[in-house]
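Sample intake — Regulatory protein DnrI
Collected from: Streptomyces himastatinicus ATCC 53653
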Amino acid sequence: MKFSVLGPIHVSFERMNVKPPAHKVRQILALLLLNDSYFVSISSLIRELWPIEPPKSAVTTVQTYIVQIRKLLARGLGTSPAEVSKRLLRTSGTSYGLNIPEGSLDLHEYRKWIAMAEAAAANGMDAEAVDAWRRAESLWRGEAIADVEHGPLLRAEAASLRQSQLSAKERRLDAQLRLGLHHVSLAELAGLVEAHPFEEGLHAKFMLAQYRSGHRGRALQVYHDLRRAMVRELGVEPSASVQRLLQEILASDGSLELAR
């Protein structure tokens, strides 16, 4: 049994793949998967499905959707919905929770590799950290819960996952620069600054990678592109740390060279 949320929702069993056909059923399944091991109240599920004005039948409708999910899981596992309600999709008062076995959810694996990467980096093991971050990133299959309509709760969960994904990339790139892998980081950084035009940390990494690759002029251009975008769109200058990096590049400051 495998569940995936780091991309379109995917549920697979030993002999079959299943997918809830109704979009509101997928919403509930997504919210339960993202809150695995925790119970989600029926009021939260209603708020996700109908954030403005829930119908009078909202409670009954949600209960019907839960029954549909249990039937779907039972079919995949070759067991009964009653057994699923005891072991996998449980009820506690007016709340529901998925009890997902270890290793069955891609989000579990992602968090495990992120934790291993952070531990390795904290111990100065940058090569091992880069490998762990790459393993974490490889689990993504596109935008998180991409095929599910997002109400307010899923919208917040998706935003959190996007930030986690970007932070992992930034942390890995920091480690790559410490390892002297500036040349191999250039193409990825070019794409990231294009996708995130106001992320100063990414631009600073791109400036440093360009400078260490022998492209001081390009490093300066990265700064000027950032400044132009920030002044025009946000009305602010780049941060003091980015401006300080600019001055160090202009001065060919020895502190920018890779420690040997």
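Post-analysis note: DSSP finds eleven helices and six strands in the chain.
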